[in-house]
Amino acid sequence: MSYIDQLPGSAKVDQIRQIHEQKLQWVNQNKKGFLRYRTPFEVLKSFPAASVDCDQEMVTIGNRADISSADRQIIENSLRSFMPWRKGPFSIYGIDVNSEWQSQRKWQRLLPELPELKDKIVADVGCSNGYYMFRMVPHKPKLVIGFEPSVQHYYCFKGLNSMAGQKNLEINLLGVEQLQLFPECFDVLFLMGIIYHRSSPVDTLRDVLSSLRSGGSLILESQAIPGTEEIAIFPKKTYAKVPGTYFVPTAHCLSNWLSRAGFMDIDMFCQHPMSSAEQRRTDWMQFESYSDFLDPSDPGKTIEGYPAPDRVFFLARKK
Ligand SMILES: C[S@@+](CC[C@H](N)C(=O)[O-])C[C@H]1O[C@@H](n2cnc3c(N)ncnc32)[C@H](O)[C@@H]1O
Q1: 87 CB near ligand 1 (under 6 Å)
Q2: Sheet-wide strand order for 121-125
Q3: Which of 77, 125, 182, 292: disulfide with 288, CB 3.0–4.6 Å?
C-alpha cells in the first residue's frame, strides 16, 4: 500500500500519483548523477537490521556483532557514497556516522514542545536524510511523510530505512511547492531550516497553513538575526556563504509572518546563537562548515558582514 492511500479524502491523489510517477521515471534513469546514489541504496537494501533504536541521540540501526567485518566494510563504503553527511548522528551496524550537524541538539530543543504525534499524519518538509523522522518513531505516528527534492538525501533516507524497516516512514521527491496537493492533510508539519530559502516566505507559510488540518500544529525552525526590530535582511548574494538565502528575519519579524499567514497561538519557545560545536567539519563532511562562514576577526558577523545567525523555534496552530 502506498502512503497516498492513507491520506485524507481532501488530498489531490490523482495529481500526487502523477507527479510521483514523473519523479520516479526521472530518477530511475541510468544517469551517473542518479546511479551514484541509487547504487549504494540498492546495496544497503540487502542488510535489513534485527534491531533499531530511535530513542537515543544516535539513531542506531543494527549492531556490530550482527554482521561480518567484510559486510561491515561494504556497508561503510555504501554509506560513504552519500557524503557529505549533513544530518545525524547515526550508528549503522557499529559504524558511527559523525555528520556535520549535531542534529540531536535541535531535536532536544523542540522535544518539550513536541505536539502529540501518536496516530497522527505528519509531514517533515525538507527532511534531508530523515534523522528527525527516525526520532519521531518512538512517538508512534501513523505516518510521517518526508518531502525532499534532493536525490542524494532521498536515496540516503531510503538506504537507511531499507535497513531500519520503519513502515510508517515514507519519503518523496517533492518540495514545499507541492504542498498545495495536500490540502487539510497533516496533523503536524515540521518546517525546519527552510523558510530563509524561500523567496516568498509568507506565501510558503500560507501553503503550509492550507496543508494542515483544522487544529493542526506547525513546528517552525529557522535562522534569525538577533534583535527586537520587525525586520529581515535580504542578502545581496549569500548569507554565511550559503547561496539561495533570501530573507533572514528577526524572531519578531518571523512571528509577524506567521500571524499574517493566518496562524494562531504563535509561541517562540527557543532562541539560541549558532555555534561551531553544533555544525562542524567531520570525517563524513569534509567541506567548509560553520566556523568558515564567520568573519575571522569578529565572530558576531558572517563573512559578508551581516549579523551572525541565531536559530529560533516556533510552535503555531491552525484554527
Ligand atoms: C538546511 S536543510 C534543513 C534540513 C532539516 N530540515 C533540518 O532542519 O536539519 C534544507 C533541506 O531542504 C531541502 N530542500 C531543498 N529545496 C527544497 C524545497 N523546495 N522544498 C523542500 N525542501 C527542500 C534540502 O535538500 C535540504 O535537505
Answers
A1: yes
A2: 169-172, 143-147, 121-125, 186-192, 212-224, 310-317, 264-273
A3: 292
